[in-house]
Structure formats: structure tokens, C-alpha cells
Q: What sequence folds into this?
């Protein structure tokens, strides 16, 4: 029976990665912390033409509903996460200890960009990068990942979550990139967010993680291709920018997957 995967703490960077697609246009991977509203100085400020979110269409619909619920009952989702006893709840508790603008559920930066794209210019293109479960290949990946997470060794490893969490946070301190826009509390929050991310990934094999990243990279290229094709002017098409908010700890591995330039998988924009 396979043991829990060991996921190394990556470099925790604050600056976006700009990847120029060989077929034209660019994919901007913008790192942010989950459940934290980022300082204005660390937000992506250049212009962009379309938004790609690393979640499913169902997730996007749920975020819009959750945002309305949180306005009606502030903090209701945070309380539910903490009560769940999951690693997300552990992250919420950590973030409450820091002087940062959070925790917030739904993820404030993803929602901020989603609502901006909904309302700007009469509606900007939005692409959902995680396939729906009616996609046979993704359903197969999802089933295999669920099987891996339910293995006895992974279930038993939850007993040592606290010890792993503390160790990962400690290791992550040296991996946080220095930035004028990131004060010590935001840096500390980055270590907790990295611990959460690694706990989530630790239940997956290296092969499953690589397979997911490669699929998402192909779909990002497909989203950019759709964005290019929607431009009438060739020069405009070659300069279009697809913005992709990505959890900070995920950035290095996703960047590597996109930079391998897998064949583009066709992706349609969200219908309105």
C-alpha cells in the first residue's frame, strides 16, 4: 500500500510569471494567498483580456452564491470551515492569528477578479480550467485521486497532521521571497498557506499531480487560443493576455507544466 507522498515546499514568490505562448499571446500566472485579500501593491496591475480560473464551472457558480451568502451572514463560511476539522479549518485558524485581510471564504482574490470580469466591458471572457465530471478523462482522474486519498496509510497519516503542519510552516519560512509589498504577517500567512497546499497535495501521487498539471496547462493554452481567435485584428490577437490567479505554492509546478507547452485542449468561455 502506497505511503503518503512527500511534497517539497516550493519557492513562495510574489511576482507574476509571464509566459509567451509560441502561437501568440501570453499567459500570466499571478500568485496569491488563498482566503486572503492581497495588498494592492501585490495585485496584477497590467491590462488583461480574459480570465482563467483553475476551477470548474460549478465552482464558479458556487462562488457567486457564497459571496451573496457571506454578505447576508458575514463569516458563516469561515465558521463552517473551522468546525469541519479539516486542513482548511486549520488554515482558517492560522490566518486569524495574523494581521492580514483574512481569512475570507469564498477566496477573495478569485471572486474579485471573477466579479470584475462579469461587469467590465460588458463582460470579459472567463474560462473554467478544471473540467466538469461529465468529462470521462477527468472523471477517471478524480476517481483515482479519491482512491489514493482513501488509502489506509493516508487515513492513518491524518493522525500526524499537526506535526507535519508545524514542520512545513517552519521549512517554508526560508522559501518566502522578500518583497516590499509583503510584510512579516503576510509572509507568515504564506507559510501557513503553503502548509495547507502541501497537505492537500500529499494525498496524491506524483503521477496524479503531474497528470493534473499537464491537463490544466493544455486547457490554459486552449483558453488563450480561444481568446486569440476572438480578435479581429492579427496584431491584437498576438498581444492578448490571459490572466490566471494561482495559489502561491502551486505556481512553480504549474509554471513548469505550462512552459512544457503541451498541445492546446479546446476550451470554451463561460456562457452568459
A:
Amino acid at each position: 500500500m502506497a505511503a503518503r507522498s512527500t511534497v517539497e515546499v516550493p519557492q513562495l514568490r510574489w511576482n507574476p510569471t509571464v509566459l509567451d505562448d509560441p502561437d501568440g499571446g501570453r499567459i500570466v500566472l499571478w500568485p496569491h494567498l488563498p482566503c486572503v485579500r492581497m495588498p494592492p501593491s501585490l495585485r496584477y496591475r497590467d491590462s488583461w483580456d480574459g480570465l482563467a480560473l483553475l476551477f470548474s464551472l460549478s465552482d464558479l457558480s458556487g462562488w457567486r452564491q457564497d459571496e451573496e451568502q457571506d454578505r447576508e451572514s458575514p463569516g458563516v463560511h469561515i465558521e463552517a470551515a473551522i468546525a469541519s476539522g479539516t486542513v482548511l479549518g486549520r488554515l482558517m485558524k492560522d490566518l486569524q492569528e495574523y494581521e492580514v485581510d483574512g481569512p475570507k471564504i469564498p477566496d477573495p482574490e478569485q471572486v474579485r477578479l471573477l466579479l470584475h470580469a462579469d461587469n467590465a466591458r460588458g463582460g470579459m471572457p472567463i474560462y473554467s480550467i478544471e473540467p466538469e465530471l461529465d468529462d470521462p478523462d477527468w472523471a477517471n482522474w478524480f476517481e483515482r485521486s479519491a482512491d489514493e486519498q482513501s488509502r489506509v496509510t493516508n487515513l492513518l497519516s491524518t493522525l500526524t497532521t499537526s506535526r507535519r503542519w508545524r514542520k512545513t510552516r517552519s521549512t517554508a519560512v526560508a522559501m518566502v521571497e522578500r518583497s516590499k509589498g509583503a510584510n512579516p504577517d503576510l509572509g507568515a500567512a504564506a507559510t501557513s498557506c503553503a502548509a495547507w497546499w502541501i497537505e492537500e497535495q500529499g494525498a496524491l501521487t506524483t503521477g496524479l499531480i503531474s497528470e493534473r498539471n499537464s491537463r490544466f496547462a493544455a486547457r490554459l493554452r486552449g483558453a488563450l487560443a480561444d481568446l486569440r481567435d476572438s480578435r479581429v485584428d492579427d496584431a491584437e490577437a498576438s498581444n492578448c493576455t490571459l490572466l490566471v490567479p494561482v495559489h502561491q505554492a502551486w505556481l512553480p509546478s504549474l509554471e513548469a507544466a505550462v512552459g512544457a507547452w503541451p498541445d492546446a485542449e479546446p476550451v470554451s468561455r463561460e456562457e452568459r
